[in-house]
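Sharing a chain and its predicted structure for anyone who wants a worked example. Both blocks are below, sequence first, tokens second.
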Amino acid sequence: MMDFKRPATPPPLGDALPAPSTPGGPLPKTVIPPSPGGPRFGSLAPTLKRSAKLQAVTDAAKRSLTVGVKKPMFKAARASLDILKVNNKAAEEKKKIGLLDLPGEIRNIIYSFTHSNKKQALLVHRPRLASLRPRTKLDRTRPLRSDLAEKEQAKVVPIPDTDSSSISRGGKRRRESPTLCRETNRPFFGLTQVCRQLRTEFRPLYMLNQEIGLDLGEVVKYLKTCYYDALQHLNVLSPYEDRKVDMPFTGNFTIAIGDKIRKFEMATDGVDVFPFLSIWANSYKIEAGFGRYVNAPYDATGDGEAKDLYRLFGRVVQQNRQCSGMNPAWRAILRARSLAAVRIHRKPASRAAAPLASSLVASRPYIHIIFRRDAAESWMDREMSMIPLGWLEKRGFGNMEYFEVKVGVESA
């Protein structure tokens, strides 16, 4: 008989694979390679390090993360989360560039684009009925024509042939067309109300295009309201010969002359317009002129009163309704603040035709230019002095059509 022997298991070789690990048990030991920056020969010896124990996440554990009542967050964790959100929001805002973040030169270019739109409404200071002058108490309670026209313009314009509809109270559908709002006649006005910096930068440029209508008798009141700090600027101005910077005022004004002369215009002192002339001559850029309250066609070429009043701004209205250049002598008088008053007498008191005559003769309307005593010339000895020949022509008051010009010095 043959002798059968059970085969023996050979011993494990040196390069044999290790036995498989038991599921759920510890993982085999891992050999950590030497560090690249460590000693070359000392690190060749293998070092042993036990790896982290893997834990399988069960279905019950996963379910516990999504169901149940969440525990309230601690105050410290909530505060840190709020701080993180604030920091992230601040970082996002830093990335945005606003108008005020741009250089001043670029902002001026943006402001200049607003001048391309010439459509601008005329703002009337204290508008009144018809000729803009109050007559009776009943007239002051009636609505103005401008108010009625504004209400008509404010009505929206319907667009026909639309499919939009709405349900009325009875449940029936009724067709309702969308509306189109009218465009504003004061574009870019909102930029003057955004913030103090934009108002300071943009408002002077905006006021150059914004024409404002004033009544001749309301000029001084308007200046006290809207240019209340003008007197402070005037007091600190340097002499006009050495002046480099004028007052930072801009504007575009039309001073209206009424057809009917009011009681205060017939007063002994007349209407003093020197405060307005002083601000006009010493400001950065203020454009001004005279006009009429008109409803019928108006012939400006034949209006000698308005044309003569333009002489107060140093200009002469020519036949083609164009203004001449600025008179330097008259402008120098205004910039030097040599005057005490410039009074307009549209209807002065009547005077006697002769010392013993009983009849009265209407005096011609005149403009009274009154100098301060420290700036008066040698020939100015009283309020109505004898004017030397050629003095008025040199200062732009020659060949007046409607007014007479009188010059003098203020009373002591």
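Comments welcome. The two ends are 164 Å apart (CA to CA).
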